[in-house]
Amino acid sequence: MIAAHYAALQVVAPLIAAPLCVLLRRGIPAWLVTVAISWIALAIAIQLLIQVLATGTISYELGGWAAPWGIEYRVDSVNAFVLLIVSGISAVTAPYAHKTVVKEIPEDRHYLFYAAYLLCLTGLLGIAITGDAFNVFVFLEISSLSSYVLISLGSERKALTAAYQYLVMGTIGATFFLIGVGLIYAMTGTLNMADIATRLDAVENTRTVLAAFAFITVGLGLKLALFPLHLWLPNAYAYAPSAVTVLLAATATKVAIYTMLRFVFTLFGSDFALDVTFLAEFLMALALVGVFAASITAIFQNNVKRMLAYSSVAQVGYMLLGVSFFSVTGLTGGIVHLFNHAMMKGALFMALGAVFYRLGSVHIDRMRGLGKQMPLTMFAFVLGGLSLIGLPLTVGFISKWYLILAALERGWWPIAGLILLSSLLAVAYIWRVVEAAYFRDPATHHPRATEAPPALLVPTWILVLANFYFGIDTSVTVGIADNAAKVLLGSGG
Fold it and tell me: How far apart are CA 236 and CA 248, in angstroms?
């Protein structure tokens, strides 16, 4: 029965499809394969999530080798939610990609783009689903190497520099992570994550385990763009092809944050992280500084993709702030923001991709008067911006509501105040774009822009409407995030 092998198919389907795109050597057939595989991955992710919520954790032993000796794919409510985010964003981005790829990438590289896209999807899904610590590194490298290629295909020469910068910092992060996994293996003699969790108790106060924790935290901090380890992200998002920016902004940092959650809570345990390493204080300080530093920097950017890239660094700060509370409410806020940020930032970058498709630029001065010339595109951007700010009825409001609740539970009024204050900074940089688009006249020496084609508008509006639907009906997203938080903290699930 095929349902018994969904966990394996989640990774195997895009992995097999990637070389198929190379064999096809044609852009449109490769694109059709990518769209089909993305939707298949989404269908599998939905089935896995339904199964997990109904029956509990799924354990899939690859090749029939029993864990912990064989490699195990392990799905609980935490990573089932992440699989849904990654596959869902890919399912919307793949149809969107065709027009932008034709516009931005030379025709002889189209099939290579889709092959790298599917490899990136393979890596991201693999990181989320595997129950083997070394396999996390393998899939991390698959997603990273394909990301470097995808970013380098950007239309500007700066894309090559951005890809190289990401490669250098990404390699350092992966090396740190691998050293940490090696030290854990030296102390426990196993790479199975569930098995490591049971064996670490006996050796958790040794210097080797402390060093492993430090290496893994710093390595993943680089991958998830934790301030001040975020320097690769602004250029990578700003100069990558439009579809790549959408995919990476909505998924890559979320998967890295999930990996940190998995290692901190499942392997090492919240008691170790709180009592031995002081991770909560460390994360809270960096998260808050990151939110304000990145938001203030975003205000002064004239390239709107770069502006939103710095905004993403700030949003990573919100997610980690939720983690730093080490409470069910805080973790629920952090985990639900993984989903919510994917919706809002995916919509915003899709709208910018549509602008770039018509103008060949996303410079803020070039966007003057676009409110009348591209009304559907710019209205989508405005609505996505309202969600980013955290207006009620949007997903952004739900995230900040739970973070403020978590702060008030602890009696930390100043933290709640800082969360509210940081929203005003988001108003400032979103307003700069709104002002240019709606309150300034277009430059006379630029030709008049026309509305983006339906192939770009439909995926954009799907994500925009999702921002409001999941902002009004939170039963699914908050329910799953709450269940995941209890699983991680060991108080339920």
Answer: 9
Residue 394 lies in a domain: yes
Sign of CA dihedral 334, 173, 313, 304: negative
* pLDDT at residue 2 tops 60: yes
Q: Is residue 316 part of a domain?
A: yes
Residue of 378, 399, 216 whose CA lies nearest to 291: 399
**Distances in whole angstroms, Cα of residue 250 to Cα of each of 87, 120, 254, 328, 377:** 11, 13, 7, 24, 19
Report yes or no on 128 lying in a domain: no
pLDDT for the residue numbered 36: 92
Establish whether the linkage from the previous residue to 392 is cis, with ω within 30° of 0.
Answer: no
Domain that holds residue 330: 278-493
Bridge partners of 363, per DSSP, are: 303
Q: What is the mean pLDDT of residues 334-345?
A: 88
- Does residue 50 lie in a domain region? no
What pLDDT does residue 122 have?
92
Tens digit of pLDDT for each residue in 209-222? Answer: 888 888 988 898 88
User: How far, in Å, CA of 397 to CA of 374, rounded?
Assistant: 27
Continuous segment of H or E residues that includes residue 75: strand 72-75
DSSP single-letter state for residue 204: T
Tell me the β-bridge partners of 192. 132
Q: What is the pTM of this model?
A: 0.87
* Angstrom distance (rounded) from CA 208 to CA 387: 44
Please report which residue ranges of 153-275 form alpha helices under DSSP H: 158-188, 193-199, 207-223, 233-239, 242-261, 270-271
Total tally of structural domains belonging to the chain: 1
Q: Which residues contact 424 (CB under 8 A, 6 or more apart)?
A: none
**Looking at the DSSP assignment, which residues form a beta bridge with residue 227?**
none
pLDDT at position 491 is 41
- Backbone phi and psi for residue 74, each to the nearest 5 degrees, phi listed first: -130, 125
Number of H helices, E strands in the chain: 20, 2
How confident is the model over 30-71, as pLDDT tens digits? 889 899 999 999 999 998 888 888 887 777 777 666 667 778
Burial (CB count <10 Å: 0-12, 13-18, 19+), residue 441: exposed
For position 234, what pLDDT does the model report?
85
